Amino acid sequence: MKLSEITCPADLKQAQAQDLPALAQEIREEIIKTVAVNGGHLASNLGMVELTLALHRTLNCPTDRLIFDVGHQCYAHKLLTGRQARFSTLRKTDGLCGFPRREESAYDLFDTGHASNAISLALGMARARDLKGEHYQVVAVVGDGAMTGGMCYEALNDAGSSHTPLVVVLNDNGMSISSNTGALARQLTRMRVSRGWLGAKKAVADALRKTPVGGDALYRGFQRIKNHVRNVLVRDKYFTSLGFRYFGPIDGHDLTGLERVFRQVETIEGPVLVHVVTKKGYGFRDAEEKPEKYHGVSPFVPEDEKTGPTLGAAAGAHITQLAESRPDLCVITAAMTGSTGFGPFVEKYPDRLFDVGIAEEHAVSLASGLAAGGMRPFVAIYETFLQRGYDQILEDICLQGAPVTFLMDRAGLGGEDGATHHGIYGVSMLHAMPGLTLLAPCCEAELRAMIDWALTQNGPVAIRYPKNTKVNLPFAGFSAGKWETLRRGGDAALISCSALLEECLTAADTLEKNGLRAAVINASTLSPADDGCLLRLHQAGIPVFTAEEHALTGGLGSIAAQHCARMGLPSPRGMLALPDAFIPHGSRKQLLQRYGLTAEQIAAAIQKVVRP
Ligand SMILES: Cc1ncc(C[n+]2csc(CCOP(=O)(O)OP(=O)(O)O)c2C)c(N)n1
């Protein structure tokens, strides 16, 4: 059976077992071909092919409910649930999303992208099923990386004390984005290793059974020892002590074995954990050898759109340098040390970098403890994932006045990853927090200056920055609390920050061609805002506009309006921002265009108000 003959999982059930390896190969080729052009999560998806085939052959979706944690590993699922024809549009504007999306398919149950919530979602569905007297299976697929997230334990704790039938498939490839960290990773390794040990013992058992004299007795004795060892070593207490029936470890690339176990657990009246061992990048040698490199592959970028090194890399390099003379500096990351630019730091100072796994809440409170003990912690986390730590930032950092610096990477539109990955709520999240200074650099030099300044402060600072800024801005120097005028003009003042300043400066060029001189102001301190600047603009009679790559509510425009109101000044004449809606995936350029934030659109919006 060919992939093109499968329009839904029911078709897959008609396939003969001997056809499946070729089908798996075809799925892999389709994934590799598409990701090579569009970018995406390659290694995770290659490792999931057999597991997805086995799940869809044994489950009866969409009646049965299959939930992927994070959802970045759902490409085979998309190919098997009627989305082959559109697969080449993966991650493209208006194309298929790289994560499950309900609007795409009845087989996608939640719009996901943030880790460690699948067991909670699945338990909720299973409880709803039981309360309504319905009958279907609920299965959550969770990676070992995602299992480092505290939410998983809250859910396991809850599920394990109930008798709710529910299957958790632990997809254990020993990797998060990079090698998995923590005590759980060590425990899973022990369990995987013992599986290899038992496999080796099978050969011994077979040999014993064939011994001419007393072979059967020898075999039975050996079997008893083996079962004992299995109980001690393999039937580990880890998941069973939490109230789960444990099955595993199972070879995640052995389709027959997987199907057998999934059929076996179907009828179990209670929570079950199936521990499946897969190889990240399976079937593509380079990805198997370097799974970290192939976790997230960047989309093809035309030469003229290429950007330089990331701002995260600049932050990492700067802090690595500062750490030489500052033994009190330390860094906390949450499963993304490399992506946030702290690879060089951990190389040089392994004792001063704490990678806590996908545990952003813990990362924040850990920083507060480190600060209370006399260290100067930096917490490097993508803005979207720091949302997880809202309460901890408020209670454990701000309320304590802890001198912790947050490095909020990937602020702004997250591009191809979509709604779950845009960093567009960070200002509204942090502006409300008493005692926290919120900064937004427009270039590497300003980022470095902000890091230096943060180290002189005795309280919390958050620096939010995009992945890259493209051009060198006419940045003259950072002065905390002061908004810097990058370009002068008396007909309008355009206040913005970070990468969107590039569009604003080009917008000012366009306006100038049309006879309007617009000032461009870098609001590098978002909180507290520069009241003096707003007052001066008002006194000079210059109409104020704000432009930001952030949701309208709670962003720079809202802050400016609030400060104006407090001083009795009129609100800005225009507040250009992303709408208060979930923003889908797409290239940053196309999304800016869609939401009216390109240079031409900004210029047109200002011109319409100032000289209609
Ligand atoms: C809350 C949160 N933090 C960080 C991430 C970034 N992230 C995406 S996938 C991933 C690793 C997941 O590892 P695992 O669950 O083992 O899946 P694998 O890719 O190895 O199959 C991370 C850290 C995220 N999606 N959500």
Keyphrases for this structure?
single chain, binds thiamine diphosphate, Rossmann fold, 612 residues, 17 strands, five-stranded parallel beta sheet, 41% helix, 3 domains
Written account of the structure:
This protein is an alpha/beta fold. It has three domains: about 5-290, Thiamin diphosphate (ThDP)-binding fold, Pyr/PP domains (Rossmann fold, 3-Layer(aba) Sandwich), CATH 3.40.50; about 305-405, Rossmann fold (3-Layer(aba) Sandwich), CATH 3.40.50.970; about 485-610, Rossmann fold. Helix content is about 40%, strand content about 15%. It has 24 helices and 17 strands. The strands form three sheets. Strands 7-6-8-9-11-10-15 form a seven-stranded mixed β-sheet, sandwiched between helices. Helix 6 packs parallel to helix 7 (about 150-160), helix 15 (about 360-370) packs parallel to helix 17 (about 390-400) and helix 20 crosses helix 24 (about 600-610). Thiamine diphosphate (TPP) binds next to loops. Thiamine diphosphate binds near residues 44, 70, 113, 336 and 385.
Question: Secondary-structure map with pairings?
Answer:
Elements: H1 9-13, H2 20-38, H3 42-47, H4 49-58, E1 65-68, H5 75-80, H6 118-131, E2 138-143, H7 150-161, E3 166-172, H8 183-209, H9 215-234, H10 237-240, E4 245-251, H11 255-265, E5 271-277, H12 285-289, H13 311-322, E6 329-333, H14 343-348, E7 353-355, H15 360-372, E8 376-382, H16 383-386, H17 390-398, E9 405-409, H18 426-431, E10 437-439, H19 444-454, E11 461-464, E12 484-487, E13 492-496, H20 500-513, E14 518-522, E15 525-527, H21 531-539, E16 544-551, H22 556-566, E17 574-578, H23 588-594, H24 599-610
Parallel strand pairs: 1-2, 2-3, 3-5, 4-5, 6-7, 6-8, 8-9, 9-11, 10-11, 13-14, 13-16, 16-17
Antiparallel strand pairs: 10-15, 12-14
Bound molecules: thiamine diphosphate.
The site of thiamine diphosphate (TPP) has 23 residues, from loops.
